[in-house]
Amino acid sequence: MPSQTVHFAGHIIDSLMLSKVLDLILNDGGQYHLSRIDIGKTRRDLSHAEIRISAADTDTLERIVQTVQKHGVTTEEPTASTREQ
Predict the structure, then answer these.
(1) Half-sphere exposure of 51 (CA within 13 A, CB side)
(2) Euclidean distance between CA atoms 27 and 23, whole angstroms
(3) Left (φ > 0), alpha (ψ -120 to 50) or beta: where does 59 sit?
(4) How far apart are CA 47 and CA 49, in angstroms?
(5) What kind and span of H or E run contains 33?
(6) What structural domains and CATH numbers belong to the chain?
(7) Which of 38, 41, 47 is nearest to 16 (CA)?
(8) CA-to-CA distance for 41 and 21, rounded, in angstroms?
(9) How far apart are CA 25 and CA 79, in angstroms?
(10) Contacts of 69 (CB under 8 A, 6+ apart)
(11) Burial letters for 30-55: b for 16+ Cβ neighbours within 10 Å, e otherwise?
(12) pLDDT confidence band for 47 (50 / 70 / 90)
């Protein structure tokens, strides 16, 4: 199953953006695993999340990644360990 790790930073908890992104992943036929999440302690602190997105095929995975990028998610370059054909 192909997968890719993405990153999300900002006020992702109080703005409900993390919830929205996770819903988008599921609604587009993907799965996710929160590999890391660091929640800011004050209103000024940013939160950071590392999300591993998986999908049944590469086309679906690419569509999901493109969709969540519109909401501020960034990608790292896929490698043999993060993307399987």
Answers:
(1) 29
(2) 6
(3) alpha
(4) 7
(5) strand 31-38
(6) 3-75 (3.30.70.2690)
(7) 47
(8) 22
(9) 21
(10) 75
(11) bebeeeeeeebeeeeeebebbbebbb
(12) very high
Structure tokens at 82: 């993060």
- State both tokens at 42: 């004050």
Structure tokens belonging to residue 71 = 């909401």
Does residue 11 surpass a pLDDT of 90? yes
Q: Are 50 and 1 in contact (CB under 8 A)?
A: no
The pLDDT of residue 43 is 85
Does position 81 have pLDDT exceeding 70, yes or no?
A: no
What are the pLDDT digits (tens) for 15-45? 999 999 999 999 999 999 999 999 999 889 9
DSSP at 57: S
The pTM of the full predicted model, rounded to 2 decimals, is 0.85
